[in-house]
Amino acid sequence: MNYNWPQIVRVDPTSEENLPGITSLTEELKKWEWNFGKTPKFHLTAMRHFKFGRLAVEMKVNKGRIENCCFLLDGTTEKLFELQSSIIGSRLGRGDMKQQISESQEFGSNSVDIVQWLDSLL
């Protein structure tokens, strides 16, 4: 018996010739607006124990921007008011929030741990 096997055709997934519009689509899907800007409104509440105490966070996010943020450090918000205010309006996935926390004097050397924790939540 003689079989006529189909021929294998290699396709370059980045080729405009094979996939018209693939370059512009790829660029669009890499943009912040696509990955975060179209995110529906959500509310996040989380708590974690750190060396310096228990930290809770509550955030309201809409279309990838933090609309409201509240940090509770062992039940108090007074020390963290400035940091909370600086985070409001930050965009997810852009490093805005990470930068604000890293530059804040509130957490000192614990900033890295806090940023990693928040990254895991968002």
From TrEMBL:
Its EC number is 6.3.1.20. Pfam families: Lip_prot_lig_C (PF10437). GO terms for biological process: protein lipoylation. SUPFAM superfamilies: SufE/NifU. GO terms for molecular function: ATP binding; lipoate-protein ligase activity; lipoyltransferase activity. Residues 39-110 form the Lipoate protein ligase C-terminal domain. It catalyses: L-lysyl-[lipoyl-carrier protein] + (R)-lipoate + ATP = N(6)-[(R)-lipoyl]-L-lysyl-[lipoyl-carrier protein] + AMP + diphosphate + H(+). Pathway: Protein modification; protein lipoylation via exogenous pathway; protein N(6)-(lipoyl)lysine from lipoate: step 1/2; Protein modification; protein lipoylation via exogenous pathway; protein N(6)-(lipoyl)lysine from lipoate: step 2/2. InterPro entries: Lipoate_protein_ligase_C, LipoylTrfase_LipoateP_Ligase. Keywords: ATP-binding, Ligase, Nucleotide-binding. The keyword Ligase applies. GO terms for cellular component: mitochondrion. The keyword Disulfide bond does not apply. This is lipoate--protein ligase. It comes from Geodia barretti (Barrett's horny sponge).
